[in-house]
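Please check this record.
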Amino acid sequence: MLLMFAVVLVFFLSVFGVPLEQIGARNEIGVSLILTAVALKLLTADSLPRLPYLTLLDLYIVCCIFFLIDRKSTRLNSS
């Protein structure tokens, strides 16, 4: 599970390789990876036991999703 989210975060770094002029391509990469992270979170929630508190895995996943959203919004505002 940790490896899958790490791969999504590494793929997100490819956004920085796309030139600033290609806003559509940058948005496509960023949004699709955010949706991928949310889908992974929903899929893992079904296979893990329900607990009344956040585990370290849950906290890691939520932090990864917020990181992706933060980086996406920062790159949109800077271009």
Q: What stands out?
A: Residues 15 and 28 are 9 Å apart (CA to CA). The radius of gyration is 14 Å. DSSP finds three helices and no strands in the chain. The chain has a mean pLDDT of 85.
